[in-house]
Design goal:
CATH class of the largest domain: Alpha Beta
Strand content: 5-15%
Structural class: alpha/beta
CATH architecture of the largest domain: 3-Layer(aba) Sandwich
Strand order of the largest sheet: 2-3-4-1-5
CATH superfamily of the largest domain: P-loop containing nucleotide triphosphate hydrolases
Radius of gyration: 24 Å
Bound molecules: adenosine-5'-triphosphate, magnesium ion
Number of helices: 12
């Protein structure tokens, strides 16, 4: 290969944004020539490496876009601690069919039972599968929607959220929504209904959702749409946080003799 061709090859690979291909090319060609690799083997390896790093880069972008407050994994969830959760049904949700079918998932239960953990873990599975995911706290989301409505930009805001195939709305019910908030939330739910999925977590049973939205009519309309295509995971059990505190207590006792 002449110097000119060599320079052009590197230049063109950069132009094509084949960053990994370009950066490992020289090194790999040397290894490949010693190992007497065929041209097909060389091309196959370089392209596979490029693809792998592109996928890793796009996953890390999706993870950043998702805005998870912490990273929680399904494999770190102790199902034995929470026997009210049917592991098979979580596995079924993790197959992500619900996203293909634009269905919803709701985790209900008292504090510390793993609602947010499971919601994030499923969100990460979805991001790994190539879906665009966005996590938000219910109060923060509703505040943003209400602000957009006041600025006559609610439509834009909801359209912006529609680029995510999966929304995770955490902590429905910890703080009540005012009338404007409930109205904006209804708009969001209506727009995604039968089009795109949402995972909700809530410490309130469905019967108590009327109090969150204050207006029972709007609460019923919201619930009707959410529950039409929905899997509810009702978690009844002890807080994992308390278990961890107990464990820490034991450790302290041991240290203090
Ligand atoms: N079964 C479990 N196995 C492993 N870790 C768990 C389990 N359940 C909860 N945790 C951990 O305990 C902590 C509390 O769980 P999480 O935040 O999911 O609770 P939550 O149900 O969302 O509670 P809250 O209603 O207070 O928000 C987290 O650090 C989470 O990773
Ligand atoms: Mg939570």
């Amino acid at each position: 290969m002449s110097n000119l061709e060599y320079e052009r090859l590197h230049h063109n690979l950069k132009l094509l944004n084949l960053i990994t291909f370009e950066s490992i090319l020289d090194n790999y060609l040397e290894i490949a020539s010693k190992a007497e690799k065929s041209t097909i083997e060389i091309l196959d390896y370089l392209i596979a490496q490029e693809l792998q790093s592109k996928e890793a880069r796009s996953l890390s972008l999706r993870m950043r876009l998702a805005g998870f407050p912490v990273e929680k994994r399904l494999e770190d969830f102790d199902f034995k601690f929470q026997p009210s959760i049917d592991k098979a049904s979580i596995k079924e949700i993790a197959s992500l069919k619900f996203i293909h079918n634009a269905e919803n998932v709701v985790f209900l239960g008292p504090p510390g039972v793993g609602k947010t953990h499971l919601a994030i873990a499923l969100g990460i599975e979805a991001a790994k599968a190539g879906f665009k995911v966005n996590f938000s706290n219910a109060s923060v989301l509703v505040e943003r929607l209400a602000k957009a409505e006041k600025e006559k930009k609610l439509e834009d805001k909801i359209r912006g959220l529609s680029k995510f195939q999966l929304l995770i709305i955490d902590e429905i019910g910890y703080l009540p929504f005012d009338e404007l908030g409930a109205h904006c939330f209804f708009q969001l739910i209506s727009r995604r209904y039968e089009k795109a999925s949402i995972i909700f977590t809530s410490n309130k049973s469905y019967g108590e959702w009327g109090d969150i939205f204050k207006d029972h009519v709007i609460a019923a309309a919201i619930l009707d749409r959410i529950l039409h295509h929905c899997t509810t995971v009702n978690i009844k059990g002890d807080s994992y946080r308390i278990k961890e505190r107990r464990k820490q207590g034991l450790i302290t006792q041991n240290f203090s003799g």
